[in-house]
Amino acid sequence: MKLGIIGKPQCGKTTIFNAAAGQEEAVGDYSRASHRAVIRVPDERVDKLAELSEPDRKVYPEIEFLDAPGFTGDGKESSGLSVTNELREMDALLMVIDAFSAEADPGRYIQNLVDEMILADQAVVENNIQSKSRKMKLTGDKSLERELDLLRRCLEVLEQERPLLYLDVIPGEETLLRNYQFLSRKPLLIILNIAEEDLPRQDEVSRQYAHLVEPGKRDVATVCGKVQMELAAFPPDEQEAFYAELGVTGSAMDRVVKKSYALLSLISFLTIGKDEVRAWTIRKGTLARKAAGAVHGDIERGFIRAEVTRFEDWMEYKTTAALKAAGKTRSEGKDYVVQDGDEILFLFNV
Q1: Is 109-178 in the same CATH topology as 2-42+60-105+185-263?
Q2: Most Cβ neighbours (<10 Å): which of 203, 219, 265, 345?
């Protein structure tokens, strides 16, 4: 999973990046700076299965974070916004919003940043309509008509000042859209970056912006970036003690990761071997044969069946023999829909 962090200058986006990635990049008005980091996503299911099987190693899912150059925050009045290709390659966007400063106006900041994404996408659409129309006129290539029609529909939505997340598409068009990597079509997690003194009321802050939440499109998280960045350097036991002292439950950055998974409809299945216990990230609704391809292409091609055990049953029965005796391990075919927390042994032949 790739997550791009965006925001207007001095909103705390690099602070959030440092908190998420355990980095120590300079913070402040460095709006043209770009930082990248890859982190492992802890999964206690991997840890607990490893305690039972004692593999050589544990392998967790990974997230790549990009702290992208800052938007202007000027909304429709912005000009010369330069969106990098690496930002367009992200799977979802984390929009960091200043909710900590004395003059903070989160609602306006959110709208301005959405407007800038719309303007950036509109420029791409207009340029492509122009170039593809010219090409079709010169060459007579009618194969471009379908794509041009889709682009014109995109332009209609954008001219209504609406993100492309709200564009209705028919089967096959999503693939065409993906080639353009439109910013306003990416799922968006709005991170309200609050002051430390507002931590006791973080749930109240989130409720104020709950109207922005749309499953699969947008979600909201409330974070004190400054505290989270400081805590990132602490051992886990010290972090827990600090949270207890502040009267908050758990890591805000853990909640950000979980919300990002949910926005992208991602789940994890598990595999156990002598060499490793591993969590694999797939999209919700993935069939068993396709999930096998996440492990290796040969397994997908030679798929025979999947031996599936729920993680909860592993915790109760502990051993393969006990699981089979209790009938908790079952054989599933290629059309089985993999569930979050499934432990799977793929049988294949190539």
Answers
A1: no
A2: 219
SS (H, E, C) the chain: CEEEEECCCCCCHHHHHHHHHCCCCCCCCCCCCCEEEEEECCCHHHHHHHHHHCCCEEECCEEEEEECCCCCCCHHHCCCCCCCHHHHCCCEEEEEEEECCCCCCHHHHHHHHHHHHHHHHHHHHHHHHHHHHHHHHHHCCHHHHHHHHHHHHHHHHHHCCCCHHHCCCCCCHHHHHHHHCCHHHCCEEEEEEECHHHHHHHHHHHHHCHHHCECCCEEEEEECHHHHHHHCCCCHHHHHHHHHHHCCCCCHHHHHHHHHHHHCCEEEEEEECCCEEEEEEEECCCEHHHHHHHHCHHHHHCEEEEEEEEHHHHHHHCCHHHHHHCCCEEEECCCCECCCCEEEEEEECC
Show me where the domains of the chain are located. Answer: 2-42+60-105+185-263, 109-178, 285-348
pLDDT digits (tens, 9 = 90+) for 257-308: 999 999 999 999 999 999 999 999 999 999 999 999 999 999 999 999 999 9
